[in-house]
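Posting this for the archive.
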Amino acid sequence: MGSIFETVMLICFGLSWPLNVIKAYKARTAKGTSLPFLLLIITGYIGGITAKVITNQINYVLVVYLVNLVIVLVNLAVYIRNVALDRKIVYNAAHQMV
């Protein structure tokens, strides 16, 4: 029964990540995105996955952890892209002033 509630929590929490990825991708800026927060979430998912493996609780909940982790890693990739876009804008603005 505990696994069902854990899965519900992970699904509810995990549904927000694809929306966040789409929003960040369309925004084309890293402003408003927290790298420490993303890293904290990734660490949490890795901890949850590790706990499932160590305790030999290999079940559908582990799959939900893995899917959420992948989505947050995509979010991290979008963040890295957006930081590069932000730097490019600053670089171009600085060189137009000269």
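The chain has a mean pLDDT of 93. The longest helix spans residues 60-97.
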